[in-house]
Amino acid sequence: xxxxxxxxxxxxxxxxxxxxxxxxxxxxxxxxxxxxxxxxxxxxxxxxxxxxxxxxxxxxxxxxxxxxxxxxxxxxxxxxxxxxxxxxxxxxxxxxxxxxxxxxxxxxxxxx
Length: 112
Known about the structure:
Family: Belongs to the transthyretin family. 5-hydroxyisourate hydrolase subfamily.
GO molecular function: hydroxyisourate hydrolase activity
Keywords: Hydrolase, Purine metabolism
Order of helices and strands: EEEEEEHEEEE
InterPro entries: Hydroxyisourate_hydrolase, Thyroxine_BS, Transthyretin/HIU_hydrolase, Transthyretin/HIU_hydrolase_d, Transthyretin/HIU_hydrolase_sf, Transthyretin_CS
EC number: 3.5.2.17
Strand content: over 45%
Number of domains: 1
Shape: globular
């Protein structure tokens, strides 16, 4: 039997250097209606991934990934922190949220 995986995973790619961004701290929070609640934290591995971030089961709702990019880009980073807020509509689906990062820009999307 396969081990259940986290409902949310991420991957950070350094598009300027053309390689994974290792060592980026990432936090997963959920919106409670009264504020954000921390669910999990992790750090990207040498492949820029966090495969096990957060619980296996998450309710439908609003969630936030916080990428502490200054740990990777340095203390003078233009984007020292990047927040990505997204909605989970299907609590049975997997949500992969990659971050494409460069010193002066970033983008994200729902991956697979």
